[in-house]
Design goal:
single chain, 459 residues, alpha/beta, Urease, subunit C, domain 1, TIM Barrel, 2 domains, 9-stranded mixed β-sheet, 8-stranded parallel β-sheet, 13 helices, 19 strands
């Protein structure tokens, strides 16, 4: 199968030029002007942007959480991602406390290998670290192509590990060339505030936000950075939401420490006023939405190079599932649907409004994730020899976000009625047409597991 993309404006993290792209089988073969070779399929990209496929390194598919499961599985979730221009995702395997990493891997392989429509990889969440698990960590890096390890500083009794375990994990991961990622919030402080609010009869979604003040995230982010500095391990803070946490990372640059930071599209776009609405449960996630000053700080952090990645923390639940906490905010499943619209949101809210450059847009939506998580240059750019994961994007098409038209398995949209300029038009996954004319051309099982190497951004 060969494809020739004609007359497009090719955008990467560093380049902006007009060219044709010739694809043979699953890789880019030739890039040049006025290419004339014959192809099985020719796509006219005149007046369109040609982008590397998006990479979302923070999604939760078919995840067990708070007595239920996230409503998108690998089929519906990766298909929705493709519709929005995200060709690869990294999902989280959750170790069951008292069980092995290998058993957790087997469980997630059963969920994904025959269902994924788009490409995928895994982070391994370590929730019970000991000497046996330390050996498994090495095996994950050296044998399974899983090189990043998620930790939680919250959710005591289910996911959280203590600082002593964290440091020992970092030492092992550092030695073998991996990366430690973290949900950085102070779980003890949060649990105490939740208990006090419930004791006072404060049960509405607003108190989910008020039980996780900015200091809980800032303190944990700083502590994580200090443990990384002590061990020499590279680290990555997921879903950063606030100025206080960002300033902790900023301070660490004074000792020449590099910590990778991810924020999510929702933290750049919407604020905590949503929790005062009658349907505020739709936006209950952890960490919660913050204030407008935090949005400004995060956009600035992207431009300053302090924030390297924009993901989604896609973890959808239906409205019926959200009603599990109608009388107790602490029982509302945490998460919201976002995987489909990240690329379009970042173009419309970021590039169109002058908050970020078009190259920075590609950098934070694709290239940096590929580099940090060991997929570059196979993924994350447009160059000869790379995977032909390509998005043809109409920068001028206006459309309205709605649950009636999105492809996520969720019966509401957290952005209902939001008008967006910029639309994913055609998507190729390893040279195959994945999305065309609003239709997915791939089937479950067409998505492939991405075995990852060491980060190309870690020195």
């Amino acid at each position: 199968m060969s494809t020739l993309i004609k007359n497009g404006r090719v955008i990467t993290a560093t380049d902006d030029y007009h060219a044709d792209i010739f694809i043979e089988n699953d890789t880019i073969s030739v890039i040049g002007e006025n290419l004339t070779m014959s192809a099985d399929k020719v796509i006219d990209a005149t007046d369109k942007l040609v982008l590397p496929g998006g990479i979302d390194p923070h999604v939760h598919l078919d995840m067990p959480f708070m007595g239920t499961y996230s409503s998108d599985d690998y089929e519906t979730g990766t298909r929705a991602a493709l519709h929005g221009g995200t060709t690869s995702v990294i999902e989280f395997i959750l170790q069951t406390q008292g069980d092995t990493l290998h058993n957790a891997l087997k469980t997630w392989q059963e969920k994904s290998l025959h269902k994924a429509v788009g490409d995928f990889s895994y982070h391994m969440a370590v929730t019970d670290f000991n000497d046996d698990v330390a050996k498994e960590v090495v095996q994950m890096i050296e044998e399974e192509g899983i090189t990043s390890f998620k930790t939680f500083m919250a959710y005591k009794g289910a996911l959280m590990i203590d600082d002593g375990q964290m440091v020992q994990l970092m030492k092992v991961v550092k030695k073998h060339g991996g990366l430690v990622t973290v949900h950085a919030t102070n779980g003890d402080m949060i649990d105490s505030l939740i208990s006090k609010n419930l004791a006072k009869g404060n049960t509405k979604p607003l108190y989910h936000y008020l039980s996780q003040p900015e200091v809980t995230e800032a303190e944990a982010s700083g502590r994580f950075c200090d443990m990384l500095n002590y061990t020499g391990c590279p680290g990555y803070i997921v879903h950063m939401t606030c100025e206080g946490a960002l300033n902790q990372v900023r301070k660490k640059t004074q000792r020449n420490q590099k910590v990778f930071v991810e924020t999510c599209s929702q933290y750049l776009m919407i604020d905590a006023s949503k929790y005062e609405q009658e349907d505020g449960a739709k936006w209950v996630m952890s960490p919660p939405l913050r204030e407008k000053k935090d949005q400004e700080a995060l956009w600035a952090g992207i431009n300053q190079g302090l924030v390297q990645v924009v993901g989604t923390d896609h973890c959808p639940f239906t409205w019926e599932q959200k009603q599990m906490g109608k009388d107790d905010f602490s029982k509302i499943p945490n998460g919201h649907p976002a995987i489909e619209h990240r690329i379009e949101f970042m173009y419309s809210e970021g590039v169109r409004k002058g908050k970020i450059s078009i190259n920075k847009f590609v950098e934070v939506c694709s290239t940096n994730a590929a580099k940090i998580f060991g997929m570059y240059p196979k993924k994350g750019t447009i160059a000869v020899g790379t995977d032909a994961d390509i998005v043809i994007f109409d920068p001028n098409k206006t459309h309205t976000i709605s649950s009636k038209t999105h492809h996520m398995n969720c019966d509401y949209s957290a952005y209902e009625g939001w008008e967006v300029t910029g639309k994913t038009e055609t998507v190729l996954l390893r040279g195959q047409i994945a999305i065309e004319n609003g239709t997915c051309k791939l089937k479950p099982g067409d998505g492939k597991f991405i075995s990852r190497g060491k980060s190309s951004l870690v020195i």
